[in-house]
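FORM 7B: Structural annotation worksheet

SECTION A. Query
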Amino acid sequence: VRLNALQKEISRQRNLSYVGRTLEVLLEGPSRKSAADLLGRDDGNHGVVLPGGNLRPGDLVPVEILGASA
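SECTION B. Predicted structure
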């Protein structure tokens, strides 16, 4: 349990380093938590969730990272 908690904190800290950056994201499809949001991936294969709007899977869009989780 302690090792999992440590790994989760390391991942969270690493992901927080992306906050404020703008990344090119390839949109894949709906997110798991909301059909109104889309899941995409940057060139490092990091998952990024963003509001769908007029975007579609296959679009390559610049995304400013506003928050992060583990």
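SECTION C. Observations
The chain is about 20% helix and 35% strand. The helical segments are 2-16.

SECTION D. Sign-off
Analyst initials: ____
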